[in-house]
Amino acid sequence: MNIIRACEAESNISNEMSTIFVDGFYQWLNYFSKDKAKLYRTFVHMFNTEVFYTAAVDNNIAAIAACTNNTPSVKLKYSEFRKHLGLIMGSIAYIILKNEFEKKQYPFQISEKMGAIEFVATSVNYRGQRVATELLKTIMDSTSYDEYVLEVADTNTNAIKLYEKLGFAEFLRIPQKHSKRSGVNNLVYMKHVKMKDVDRTQITKD
């Protein structure tokens, strides 16, 4: 498995990243179109490769995730939404997702030493193979934040179990207004505090 920042890839991997993104978040994105091919083309432009990380298996992108502080993970272009989804739906999707993705507002303060992990998704061809686990471990080991936070739907129990195994713990839960339509009752916020070297030494002594 090869884990790198997306900007370090030797070729353009945006198409693969978009496919993984759409497949992973199709439950929410299908409101804008049921046609996955259209959605793949719509989102291929948006990734900030400086903050996205990818895990490759056999030269195929197997998982993606972003880790950022105050820099947006994505940058949406209105022209791309209109081009692939049409004037009306493209405009609706752009307005909604720009506010949700690009202007993401967390219900708590993101400090300078806190990394926000976003858009964690695994290719349908590599699910159940611990690819996302290794990707997140590498991100947390290679970045300098003291703690990490992420958002996950309460119905995504597999993801919650994965995050708990990595040391994340829930600290906030926000009820959703349109739970019947979205299928999500609450957004769960989880935090992982990085163990410092002095802490590791103390555990070894104990």
What does this structure look like?
With 206 residues, the chain is α+β, with helices and mostly antiparallel strands. It has a single domain, classed as Gcn5-related N-acetyltransferase (GNAT) (Aminopeptidase, 3-Layer(aba) Sandwich), CATH 3.40.630.30. The protein is 39% helix and 24% strand. It has nine helices and seven strands, in the order βαααββααβαβαβαβα. Strands 1-2-3-4-5-7-6 form a seven-stranded mixed sheet. α1 packs across α3 and α3 runs antiparallel to α4.
Using the alpha-carbon principal axes, give the shape: globular
Give the CATH superfamily. Answer: Gcn5-related N-acetyltransferase (GNAT)
- Kindly, what is the distance between the CA atoms of the first and last residues, rounded to a whole number of angstroms? 34 Å
Uncertain stretches: 200-204
The total domain count is 1
Keywords:
single chain; 206 residues; Aminopeptidase; seven-stranded mixed sheet
Summarize it.
By secondary structure, the protein is of the alpha+beta class. The protein contains nine helices and seven strands, in the order E-H-H-H-E-E-H-H-E-H-E-H-E-H-E-H.
